[in-house]
């Protein structure tokens, strides 16, 4: 190969950062020279230019967040374990303290019953409940129950499951740790779930808490949590309307 042609290849490689196939096309377009891909590759290897230094692309990552005060936001979700067996889960956004329950279905009957369990077992007063857009959460009976307790209902935007990611991770932990160790036909399955819930809240280290456990984070910050009377005084029922499931307006997506 003639030296001037090699210089053209090197110039295109250094100046425009072209790959081998693009170099072949440009040599033909600019100079009317048709070369084999292997020939161009040998030239680049001879001059130490066979590898391009490209900027490494960084995938966009979701920005992690956590509410600073216990009870400020509780994420809630439901997943199917097997036919006629569903697990409801609620997780406090701040300490990752969870409440879980088993029900034969996900419906406007099971959801209020689980809400009763959450309010009873959660050690702090709840200001907001955040859910996905499942029909079982939008029932009037459910929203009326939340209004009665002065709890704000905050469904996430459509097609944004990452916003409810903390309760999703808790459910995945249950799938990986709890369910393989139990018999789903055991009549005491609910009792064993309660035992695992206690272990999760009081003993199991969490990477998201720097190796701590939810009860420790809760105790560290419980003095910041508002009392039920304070939450009720700040609650404005005129602003908390009954939301239809197909309503994708800005009201369900408010940051508060």
From TrEMBL:
Q: Which InterPro entries match?
A: Integrase_cat-core, RNaseH-like_sf, RNaseH_sf
Q: Which residues form the Integrase catalytic domain?
A: 64-222
Q: Which SUPFAM superfamilies match?
A: Ribonuclease H-like
Q: What is this protein called?
A: Integrase catalytic domain-containing protein
């Amino acid at each position: 190969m003639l030296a001037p042609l090699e210089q053209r290849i090197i110039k295109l490689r250094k100046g425009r950062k072209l790959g081998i196939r693009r170099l072949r096309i440009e040599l033909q377009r600019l100079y009317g020279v048709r070369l084999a891909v292997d020939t161009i590759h040998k030239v680049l290897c001879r001059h130490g230019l066979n590898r391009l230094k490209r900027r490494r692309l960084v995938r966009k990552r979701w920005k992690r967040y956590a509410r600073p005060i216990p009870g400020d936001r509780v994420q809630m979700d439901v997943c199917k374990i097997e036919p006629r067996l569903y697990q409801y889960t609620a997780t406090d956004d701040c300490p990752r303290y969870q409440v879980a329950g088993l029900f034969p279905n996900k419906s406007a009957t099971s959801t209020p019953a689980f809400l009763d369990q959450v309010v009873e077992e959660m050690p702090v007063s709840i200001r907001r409940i955040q859910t996905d857009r499942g029909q079982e959460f939008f029932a009037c009976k459910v929203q009326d129950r939340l209004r009665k307790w002065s709890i704000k209902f905050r469904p996430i935007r459509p097609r944004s499951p990452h916003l409810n990611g903390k309760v999703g991770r808790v459910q995945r932990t249950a799938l990986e740790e709890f369910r393989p160790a139990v018999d789903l036909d055991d009549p005491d399955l609910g009792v064993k779930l309660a035992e695992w819930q206690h272990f999760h809240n009081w003993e199991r280290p969490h990477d998201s808490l720097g190796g701590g456990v939810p009860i420790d984070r809760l105790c560290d910050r419980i003095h910041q949590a508002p009392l039920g009377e304070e939450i009720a005084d700040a609650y404005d029922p005129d602003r908390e309307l009954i939301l239809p499931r197909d309503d994708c307006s800005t009201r369900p997506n408010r940051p508060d």
